[in-house]
Fold this protein.
Amino acid sequence: MSWTTTTRFPVLPITRSRPSGGEGASSAAEEFADAPDEALLAFVQAGNREALGVLFRRFAWLVRSVSLRILRDEGESEDLVQELFLFIHREAAVYDSTKSSARSWIVQMTYRRAISRWRYLNARGHYRNAELDCCHSAMGSVVAPTYDSSIEALFGKEGLKKVMGELTAEQHETLRLHFYEGYTLAEIGEKLGQSPGNVRHHYYRGIEKLRKQVRESQLQNR
């Protein structure tokens, strides 16, 4: 996969914590080091490339990690990081801080592009390994409805609120942090002060409830 552009960002390793400004951070960018994510996006909207660089250093690891969950291909995931930040550079104005946090918006944009790319690759036989096909089939039923707007299209906005209302508070928060904020289950456990076993329980029970609602709605619409 190649993107026809002259702009390239450095490839960063996948880590589970935000990297600091680190080596190579320009003095111009240092003034943005402590700026909130939402403020950085506002600066990017105004055309500030230093603010974009700071956002990249903060979130490239997360974009790559989330995309790898879907694509299961390191090369494709690295390319998606490039594409995502080029999108932010060009289209930062579409971000609305009244609707979501900057982190949540970046994660959602990542999921949408990763799922679109996975579908493109899968249709062309990129995923021939049976284990990968099985994995992505399972993931598709979980992730795609959330980020490809098909659940909202299926239930409508009010219906979606009702469906989400069927979840317990723990299930809702676990799925929100995982899918909307990009946290791993282990990180969610640390964030909520719960054991890994409890977090996995909330996650899988919540997913099963959503799947059940989708199946029932599909049967009703036949």
